[in-house]
Specification:
Layout lengths: L10 H4 L9 H56 L3 E7 L8 E7 L14 E7 L4 E7 L8 E3 L10 H16 L6
Antiparallel strand pairs: 1-2, 2-3, 3-4, 4-5
Amino acid sequence: MSQTPNEPASTVDSVTPIPTDSVTDIDEIVHHWTDLRQEGVERQAEAEAERRHFLEDFRTNVDSVIRPAMQAAVARLGEDGGGGLIEEREESLMHRPRIVLWMSLDGEIVAPRQDRNPYLQLDADVGRRRIDVWEGDMWEEEGASRAGSPWELGDVSTESVTKRILDILRRAATHGLSA
């Protein structure tokens, strides 16, 4: 076939047919993608189950260990002329589950504040499967607030909660003595 200078070359003549066996690689690609997608769905379901399990364990610890230890501290502070208050917050889209013990060495707590009251705050960090510990020993306009070493669920005991509370109160009781 002769071609004139203004005519395009025929592509039909230059195309080599593709054997149908070579497109079977598409099957492998699609199956691999489907497998990966399914694995992702399964990992996500496992992560959600672990998340729910951690939250259940955290709530169980709050109910059976943390809150009772905090309530005992509030009762004893009240007997000794101080005060205490426990605040709890459930998980929401914007917040992690939390329990906070606010303490006073002298009198009841009217409006708790980190810059005025000793406190122990425990936040459930679901992503890391741990409990973040925040503590403050502010009293008489002295002291500090800081992050403490995080706890694993297995670290939570009446003794560990009580020890943190006592350490905070010991530090707070040394403030304001220089006047």
